[in-house]
Amino acid sequence: MSTAILTGQPVPGSSLEGDLRSLGFDVRLASDAGETETLLAAVPADQRVAVVDARFVGHPHALRLGLTDPRFAASALPGAISVQPEARRALSRAVARESSASGGLAVATENLAKRLAAALDADGVAVHHPELGTLVAAVPTDPQERNEARQAVAAVDDEAVRLRSAVKARDGFFTTYCISPYSRYLARWCARRGLTPNQVTTASLLTALIAAGCAATGTRAGFVAAGLLLLFSFVLDCTDGQLARYSLQYSTLGAWLDATFDRAKEYAYYAGLALGAARGGDDVWALALGAMILQTCRHVVDFSFNEANHDATANTSPTAALSDKLDSVGWTVWVRRMIVLPIGERWAMIAVLTALTTPRITFYALLIGCAFAATYTTAGRVLRSLTRKARRTDRAARALADLTDSGPLAELVNRVTRGAVRYAPALVAFAAGALVVLGAALSPYGSWWPVLGAAIYVLLSPVAVARPLKGALDWLVPPFFRAAEYLTVLVLAAKADVNGALPAAFGLVAAVAYHHYDTVYRIRGNAGAPPHWLVRAIGGHEGRTLLVTVLAASLTAAQFKVALTVIAVAVALLVLVESIRFWVSAGAPAVHDEGEPA
């Protein structure tokens, strides 16, 4: 239970006390700053507490935004301030100073919340001020102002604003116009029945897994059912975020579920399509794995570019200026959002093609669409990077270094060479990756040439990270490493040409990709990278690449399939156990992804 302390004389006919109780607050009354201090001291230290001016007039949703958002240690709006346990000491100090200065005068409660917010800011506590838009939040000082404020409240539909704000501000065309117009009402229906975003997220995952199971039957009826269920899973996927925003139910566990389940659903569906195709005599596992690799590398490009420029300062890029001009022409915004094939458009395409065509055609369309989208977005970002002289921070360089996922072999090489060799990181990463992938592609299965390529990759890859990644194109280093590792596994499994090798490779890449997504979302939540022992235990990208090439050269095709399966299971267990431990712990950040469409 949270506690709200109403300061000053209650206003007859005010609904404020009832509004606060409807938001889950236990309401206490304080006539002066001294009594406020006494009531604050009586509230248990592990509870949220709010101080609200009794004269406050506004919408209930304005109070909800200002007083109940779990993502912020302190938040305020006109006439009210709310703090979570981590900011309680700062609030207590501020209230004590107010009580001491007031000398017990009741008049000291006027604008008390505003002064407390200023005191918290001065004390180093970041106070969040939510954007209210058309919502009203005011502290009238006389009857006329109060009457005008009440009229302003009556003129705006609080519930309509709350529904609109539940929809993500930036989303794809399909999501905005085909899903959100009704999924927001589903979110409200869930909220009124006490369902949580985590429950809806789990329902979305289960629906997608059932869809994958239907696709795995290999029948036309199964494909049609799979397409329909995949679309419904996406509706639920939109609903969980809208429910979180509608009811401000952000949580640490929810951040983890929302961040990872989209990928789990999509890649499980790829596997289901591949299994269904196999039942019909068509082996498309290489296409399924290729689609997963392409989609994962696209995301790594997004994450790396955004992290590199997260807090960079730079002059204006001509490319960025052109982009801004295009955004000013309404229809171009939607065209550009559609051609990058965000999750809504991508899943709609997959669902329709699954129902109407074959898995092979579905994967061909997916690969072509994602390849075009990746080329378009990456080319634009390269142009921006080359035409804008960005000054990147140590934080950005650290994030990029963490995203490279360099392991113990890279550390050993760097210690031996002491970082003596320093060259263009992106060029070195590309050359090293191309060498190992081409070595695997141009050699027959069982050859030791790929091992030589992987050994050179192990020696060259540390060169790319020998210095802080602050160059114009250094954000390309993590994507190049991801592509090199994933494609090496794909090529060697395909070369093995034994039943089950590609599904085993699919499992290994999925497990490693999960680790990389987990790294991204920890960094996004300002929680740092996964623990160093985990990166060392799973070998780093260079260690895993070398291991896979050695196994392919020294084992028979059937034994190689088993080895890939064992490695996949081991990596999956390690990264999942550590990831679950982190995201359900109290130390994980309570965040909700509001970034680019995935």
Which terms would index this structure?
two-stranded antiparallel ribbon; single chain; 25 helices; 598 residues; mainly alpha; 6-stranded mixed β-sheet; 5% strand
Description:
- The structure is a single chain.
- The protein has 598 residues and is mainly alpha-helical.
- The chain has 25 helices and 8 strands.
- The strands form 2 sheets. A 6-stranded mixed beta sheet has the order 2-1-3-6-5-7, sandwiched between helices. Strands 4-8 form a two-stranded antiparallel ribbon.
- The protein is globular, with a radius of gyration of 28 Å.
- The mean pLDDT is 89.
Judged by helices, strands and strand pairing, the structural class is: mainly alpha
Mean pLDDT, to the nearest integer, reads: 89
Range of helix content: 55-70%
Number of helices: 25
Q: What is the global morphology?
A: globular
Biggest sheet record: 6 strands, mixed
* Separation, N- and C-terminal Cα atoms: 36 Å
Q: Looking across the biggest beta sheet, what order are the strands in? A: 2-1-3-6-5-7
Pick out the low-confidence regions.
Answer: none
Proportion of residues in extended strands? 5-15%
Compute the gyration radius: what is it? Answer: 28 Å
Quantity of strands, as a count: 8
Describe the protein's topology.
Layout: E1 2-7, H1 16-22, E2 25-30, H2 33-42, E3 49-53, E4 57-58, H3 60-67, E5 74-77, E6 80-83, H4 88-102, H5 112-122, E7 127-128, E8 137-138, H6 143-155, H7 158-165, H8 173-192, H9 197-216, H10 220-247, H11 252-279, H12 285-308, H13 318-327, H14 330-339, H15 343-356, H16 359-387, H17 394-404, H18 408-417, H19 425-441, H20 449-464, H21 477-496, H22 501-524, H23 532-537, H24 540-554, H25 557-583
Parallel strand pairs: 1-2, 1-3, 5-7
Antiparallel strand pairs: 3-6, 4-8, 5-6
Helix pairs in contact: 2-4, 4-5, 8-10, 9-10, 9-11, 10-11, 10-15, 11-12, 11-22, 12-16, 12-17, 12-21, 12-22, 15-16, 17-21, 18-20, 19-20, 19-21, 20-24, 21-22, 21-24, 22-25
